Please model this.
Amino acid sequence: MAGRSFIDPQPKWFEDFEAGDTMTTRGRTVDIGDITNYAGLTGDHYQLHTDGAFMEKNRFGQRIAHGPLTFSLAVGLVGLSGFYGDAIVALVEITGLKAMKPVFAGDTLHVVARVDVHEASGPKYGTLGVTYSVRNQKEEEVMTFLQTMLAKRRQAEG
Model:
C-alpha cells in the first residue's frame, strides 16, 4: 500500500487566504526560564523582569515577561501552526502593538489570528495583514498587533 506524502512547510499562495479567515494556535506556557533567557539574550535586565524581591512590592507582585518576548512567542506560535505554509516572502511591518495585561511565568498563551487585509499588490505578490490577539489561559487578551506581510501569488508560478 502506497502512503501519502506530506511536505513542511505546506505549499501556499496569497490566493489561499481570504479576509476574515481565522486560526487559533495551540497553547504555550511561559516559564521563568523563558523570562531569564530572554533577559540574557537581549541584555534587558530591567527589574520588572529580573528582580523578584523588587517585584514583590510592585503592582504586579511578581516578575513579568518582557513585552517583546510575548510578541516573539505569538509570532512563533502562528509560525509553528503552519497557517502560512510557504506563502510569506517578506515582513512589511508590525503596527498597533498594544500590551494590555502582564504575562507571568506560568501563564499559557495562545493566539487567535485573523486575516484583516487581503490586497493584490501586483502580479507576483499580495499583501496580507493579520491581526494577532494574544490570549492567556483565562482568555484575557494580553497583547494585540497587526502583522503585514507579502505573500507570493499563484499566478506568478509557472
Observations:
- The chain has one domain: 14-156.
- Helices lie at 32-42, 47-50, 52-56, 67-81.
- Residues 67-81 form the longest helix (15 residues).
- The domain at 14-156 is CATH 3.10.129.10 (Thiol Ester Dehydrase; Chain A).
